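Researcher: Here's a chain I'd like modeled. Treat it as a single chain, no partners, no ligands.
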Amino acid sequence: MATREILPFLTWAGGKRWLINNHSELLPRDFNLYIEPFLGSGAVFFYLNPKKAILSDTNSDLIDTYIALQTNWQRVFKHLKTHQRLHSKEYYYKIRNLKPRKLETRAARFLYLNRTCFNGIYRVNKKGEFNVPIGSKQNVILDTDDFEEVAKRLQNTLILNNDYEAIIDKAVKDNFLFVDPPYTVNHNDNGFIQYNEKLFSWADQIRLCKALSRARERGVKIIVTNANHASVRQLYEQHGFSCEVINRYSGISSKPKGRKNFEEIIVKSNF
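Model: Modeled as a single isolated chain. Structure tokens:
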């Protein structure tokens, strides 16, 4: 199903390039619809290049960017080239404070900030305003950019800004659900997970697991990535899922000592 490689156009905390680079054999190849309710950078979607897909996320800025590239990537790229030409510290904060009205200008702003902010982190304040400071990277246009191919791969894709449960409930027999939620556990044990708890609570984890259990009963093929924590493993195993521990490296930290190997789990339904 996969054709030539295309890299995700976003830097995203928790992105799944490590999964496709090291454990692609875990992904099913035989399915009739790909569904991803926590989209992020879409690494697995772009790797599998499915014929039909439903992609969703609650981050409206993220979803607007995907829709803009799907419908008019040329205009997004034109604005992105302007950001490249004008990029500076003063310009960065000027763009960060703007709220563009047009879809393509919002998408170009989102991409610009993602590529030039500190560590590619997406974070907003209580008012929902992006507040990450400028980073050290200067390249707004990347050698790996292929927005025309991105647009082609998104053509037969329904892109939604919905709650994950509503998306999971759309899945039917022989669909493939790839689920990569924010990593929260029943007892938080690091700063990143504590930050995620504000966005995705343990109650959300339970609701997610129950929705996935219903989908499995409908014959849906499922893979979930999550934190390797006793509370998470117990939750999924109690609902009849199998869990496999995987090591992966995380480079997203402000301090070198924070960049290290972490254990995650791959939760699978039987397929």
